[in-house]
Amino acid sequence: xxxxxxxxxxxxxxxCTYNRSRHLSDTLRxxxxxxxAADVYEILVVNNNSSDDTEQLLREQHLARxxxxxxxxxxxxxxxxxxxxxxxYTLFIDDDVFLPEDFIGNWLQFxxxxxxxxxxxxxxxxxxxxxxxxxxxxxLAQMLGRHRAKKSGYVYPSGSFPHGGNMLLHTNTxxxxxxxxxxxxxxxxxxxxxxxxxxxRRLQQAGHVILHxxxxxxxxxxxxxxxxxxxxxxxxxxxxxxxxLVLQDTSSRKQWYWMQFIKASVSVFISLGYLLTLQxxxxxTTIRFRKEVLAGFRSAVKEVQAAPSSQKHSSRGMHDE
Length: 321
Known about the structure:
It is a single chain. The chain is α/β, with parallel strands linked by helices and about 325 residues long. The protein has 2 domains: about 10-225, Spore Coat Polysaccharide Biosynthesis Protein SpsA, Chain A (Alpha-Beta Complex); about 230-320. The protein is built from 9 helices and 10 strands. The strands form 2 sheets. The protein has a 7-stranded mixed sheet, sandwiched between helices. The protein is globular.
């Protein structure tokens, strides 16, 4: 069972990485240019079994402390980061981001301004490394990590959460609440999702408030390899799959279907607009995305129903590892 520890005030910037050494190198470069005083934060990289030259990169750099998590999966890697963190707050960012020089400094100001905050999220915009394909509709940018800025101190209502690519957690609070469910989320090249939703739902149910910090935006990099129709379909299925694993009760699933009906109706309306403006590629992508999310959800529901009761979803997190 994981236990909490006495931690140093400040922030552990945690990066969980898998086979993205080129992007990770750029992210570490941006972290090396931060203006915040170096004695109030640390940088931690969790290498989740990368098979590229990530380990060589980490051995050659002198900016970040790093560890290897051999259990495959983003939730395992994030939980390892929480266990390894030496600071009172853990700030998770992705391994493929661009950061402004005041990124960490503004997060430090935020935890001073909102003393005692247990969780928070920041804005994320999308940076298309190789340009945006004409067929990709920006209405789907959220699946690429986009998270719009809100006012400072904004409280996420029940059922609404930050994005994991720019999220701050009070380290010991996250551990006490079981951290991330290791049976949900991305594992290697498997594009499932939902671990962040499941974790934040538990935090909210435990009475914790989740805030927003608009002063620390970052850019999430997206290259051509993640801008194919096949990849978009896989990720859409992963979103639906993860939602089904999170929402196990009948009432929650009925609500999910109702929300999907609303989203599908909006998508049809948007797609008609694309067709009227001679943008059929965007129309097809928008409709297919909704179709694949539904397919992923239904597939996961069948998997859960067919699984023995001992293997079905429970709030399995750090305490159960």
